[in-house]
Amino acid sequence: MLPHPTGVLSDLDRVLLDAPSIQSRIAAMAREVAADFDGKVITVIAIMDGGLFFVADLLRAIDLPMRLVTMSASSYHGTTKSSGQVHLPWPASLDLKDQHVLLLDDILDTGLTLGAVQDRLKQEGAATIRTGVLLKKRREHAREVAVDYVGFEIEDEFVVGYGMDYQGRFRNLPCIGILRP
Ligand code: 5GP
Ligand code: MG
User: Fold this and answer.
1) What is the enclosing helix (H) or strand (E) of 114?
2) In the sheet that 159-160 helps form, which strands lie side by side, from edge to edge?
3) 51 within domain boundaries
4) What is the CATH classification number for the domain harbouring 52?
5) Total domains present in the chain
6) Exposure class string for 161-178: b at 16+ Cβ within 10 A, else e
7) 106-154 pLDDT, tens per residue?
8) Whose CA is nearest to atom 19 of ligand 1?
9) Mutation test of ligand 1: which of 76, 138, 144 has the most ligand atoms closer than 8 Å to its C-beta?
10) What is the CA radius of gyration of the chain?
11) pTM of the predicted model, to two decimals?
12) 13 lies in a domain?
């Protein structure tokens, strides 16, 4: 039963991941991250806007010192297909030399976005780069990128909710779902 049948949930064809499943998986991911970075100060690079809720929930479950840097990077431009080109504006006064970086994004699709950010993090001299995504699509990735933490593997379908949008909408859904055709 969908709790808000006349709200944004009514545009969904089906729910892929409900809110409790997302939360319990994120709690487990947080424990993994905390163990791997134990004793370090983390610099979190969070890719917005899709990663907003994932990052907020994950980071609050990690009891380690950290600083947070948000960035916008995307290979999508308000559509449901990757454009193949990554737009990556870099914050002006960001010093990552010798930092222990946790790179977070909502979803690994073609791999182009995270690949581009990882390249840049290496150029900037980060000491450690670990990457986490909430979702990874089962598909051929245009670019193979190293990912250390994956919340869920999903089929190659366009998803919305829990931060992820279609034309700017549906980010506020507490679950992750597939839109009606
Ligand atoms: P990639 O560069 O790996 O192709 O794409 C990564 C970015 O594309 C993600 O950070 C996300 O913003 C967007 N994206 C990829 N797949 C989906 C999807 O199924 N739904 C939504 N809403 N965004 C997606
Ligand atoms: Mg994104």
Assistant:
1) helix 112-123
2) 12-17, 176-179, 159-160
3) yes
4) 3.40.50.2020
5) 1
6) bbbbbbeeebbebbbbbb
7) 999 999 999 999 999 999 999 999 999 999 999 988 889 999 999 999 9
8) 158
9) 76
10) 16
11) 0.92
12) no
